[in-house]
Amino acid sequence: MENKALIQTYLNNIRRHLVPKLRPGIGVSSSFYPASSGGGLLEIQVGPAKANSDVVLPAEPSIGAILMKVPQHAFGGNLSGVKFSGTNIVAEGDRLILIKGDDLPENWSDEAAARDLEMALRRGNTK
Fold first, then answer.
1. For the whole model, what pTM was predicted?
2. Are the C-beta atoms of residues 90 and 72 closer than 8 Å to each other?
3. pLDDT per position as a tens digit, 36-55
4. Which one, 19, 86, 89, 127, has least CB within 10 Å?
5. Residue span of the structural domain in which 41 resides
6. What is the pLDDT of residues 67-110, one digit of tens each?
7. Long-range contacts of 17-22 (CB under 8 A, 24+ apart)
């Protein structure tokens, strides 16, 4: 996903749905890593010492290339050929990782952001 306007709208929608669920004084920072081949990875960190921010980084060729750059423990080995579809969620420590596998507009809508966040919060509560 390399459509920066759509990415920023999705990030805004995620934040709009997440902030009301947090206590006052809790910050949310997000980093989005777009994949030229479609989709991307959203890393959300939440905590009292976090500044509210959104960063969209330069595109990488694939989700596998992104997974090799982002510190994470869910996936290892040769990730060059890994493919995802829909939204996949990893909860690690104080952060959530949402892997968006494609560029279908319905997967980047406000409804998709609400659904993705709800799934992520359920996943984060099962530690």
1. 0.85
2. yes
3. 988 999 999 988 978 888 99
4. 127
5. 4-124
6. 888 887 777 677 677 777 778 888 888 888 899 888 888 889 99
7. 17/113, 17/114, 17/117, 18/44, 18/46, 18/117, 21/121, 22/46
C-alpha to C-alpha distances, 67 to 45, 53, 74, 79, nearest whole angstrom: 17, 21, 9, 7
**Are the C-beta atoms of residues 97 and 41 closer than 8 Å to each other?**
yes
Contact 114, 17 (CB under 8 A): yes
Largest separation between any pair of C-alpha atoms in the chain: 42
> What total of structural domains would you count in the chain?
1
99 within 8 A of 90, measured Cβ to Cβ: yes
Structure tokens at 32: 């989005």
